[in-house]
Design a protein that fits this description.
5 strands, 3 helices, 142 residues, 5-stranded antiparallel sheet, alpha+beta, elongated
Amino acid sequence: MNLFDMLPTYISPSFALIGTYCLILANEKQHEIERVLLNGIRTSGTVIEIRQNPSGGLGEAPVVDFKTQTGSHRHFSTTYTSPCAYRVGQQVQIWYKFNKSNRTAALLDDKPGRLPTILFRWGVVLCLLTYPELIKRLMLLL
């Protein structure tokens, strides 16, 4: 008796769906900064703060205040470097792309961070665990 024989029949498809969604979201997050830099609107902003890495790691990242047609906005970079390439008061180029509820901004040197890698790993694990069982069940239906 394997693990899937003990689970209700709706669990395996649910995990497969979650795994697939994780893979799609990982791809989206991995290329988000590229898309903003390529298709976004460029403007200038001012570095108003340098933040320490909240996870306790090394590095600092800038907080940039910039203006758009809809008002003033802040971009909290998550690309922590040591030493920080920015200083408070520095004028920088920033790109933004605002759609309905999705507001994305990026500096030229921003990186996607660890989230895409984490989502990708979870997606692969969930898909590898569930897709074989789904295929087996579909074959039994034929």
